[in-house]
């Protein structure tokens, strides 16, 4: 009897999009364009004579019938991949993990350490997107979302991995030009601010028993990584988060003239969708982040 099979490329696009809940993520996994995935899904819908997805802006949701269909065909793809690997001793394609993290954290902490993860796990690819928005506003689904915390979000498991405090930092050259022997010497300096964190300097000055201090000048940036770069360039003094300036302090690009007082800050946490919390590779990356966080705590400023 002749087998009646749907277009296999279309079926493959449907399986990936249904499993990941996103045409964009399916396109990344299959190494094709978003448009190609959408076209294949439409082709399969025409072939089946029924819709497969409900479209909601950038997200897609399986129809109940399509969910049942995916539950049946999904395991067949895994069986096919395993059988092919056994038959031809073919290496499986690298698995891609998607991460969403704040921009400054990504630039100053995560990216410098990712080479270590890639060396330890060359078969795992990590795709990082940056966003500072709240977790519930994200339009895409990610394997791991990194945000401050600890907070509780419905449908996510949370684990802290990196603690942080804040203290003044500046370049050694600036300190050589205008020494800082006590917090009162800040009157002779430019204080660097970030518009989204307006309370850092007032709170630190209050902790240092100098709430009324007026600096020589103030300069405000709209992104925190610009504030830190201005400190490295000797423009002024910034309130540096210990986790994000540890490498600069160790390399001598920054110095901390006043080890105390320190402002307590929220920890960095991983938020993982509950349906992905049992994924072996997600757990692998999550554990690696926690290991790196512990190492930072032991060697931190």
TrEMBL record:
Record-given protein name: Transcriptional regulator GcvA
Domain HTH lysR-type: 6-63
Keywords: DNA-binding, Transcription, Transcription regulation
Pfam family of the protein (one): LysR_substrate
InterPro entries the UniProt entry points to: LysR-type_TF_proteobact-type, LysR_HTH_N, LysR_subst-bd, WH-like_DNA-bd_sf, WH_DNA-bd_sf
Family: Belongs to the LysR transcriptional regulatory family.
CDD domains: PBP2_GcdR_TrpI_HvrB_AmpR_like
Biological source species: Paraburkholderia bengalensis
């Amino acid at each position: 009897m002749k087998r009646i099979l749907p277009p296999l490329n279309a079926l493959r696009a449907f399986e990936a999009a249904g499993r990941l809940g996103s045409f964009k993520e399916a396109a990344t996994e299959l190494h094709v364009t978003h448009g190609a995935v959408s076209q294949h899904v439409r082709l399969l819908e025409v072939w089946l004579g029924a819709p497969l997805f409900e479209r909601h802006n950038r997200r897609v949701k399986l129809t109940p019938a399509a969910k049942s269909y995916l539950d049946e065909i999904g395991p067949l793809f895994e069986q096919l991949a395993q059988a092919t690997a056994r038959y031809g001793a073919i290496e499986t394609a690298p698995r891609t993990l998607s991460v969403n993290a704040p921009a400054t954290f990504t630039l100053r902490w995560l990216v410098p350490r990712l080479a270590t993860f890639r060396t330890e796990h060359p078969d795992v690819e990590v795709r990082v997107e940056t966003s500072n928005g709240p977790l519930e506003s994200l339009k895409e689904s990610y394997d791991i979302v990194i945000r401050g915390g600890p907070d509780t979000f419905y449908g996510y498991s949370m684990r802290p991995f990196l603690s942080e405090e804040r203290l003044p930092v500046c370049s050694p050259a600036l300190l050589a030009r205008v020494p800082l022997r006590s917090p009162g010497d800040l009157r002779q300096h430019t204080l660097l601010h970030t518009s989204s964190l307006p309370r850092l300097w007032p709170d630190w000055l209050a902790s240092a028993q100098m709430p009324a201090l007026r600096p020589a000048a103030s300069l405000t940036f709209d992104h925190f990584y610009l504030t830190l770069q201005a400190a490295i360039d000797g423009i002024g003094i910034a309130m540096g988060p210990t986790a994000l300036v540890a490498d600069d302090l160790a390399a001598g690009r920054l110095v901390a003239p006043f080890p105390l007082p320190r402002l307590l800050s929220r920890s960095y946490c991983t938020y993982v969708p509950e349906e992905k919390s049992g994924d072996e590779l997600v757990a692998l990356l999550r554990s690696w982040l926690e290991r790196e966080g512990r190492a930072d705590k032991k060697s931190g400023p």
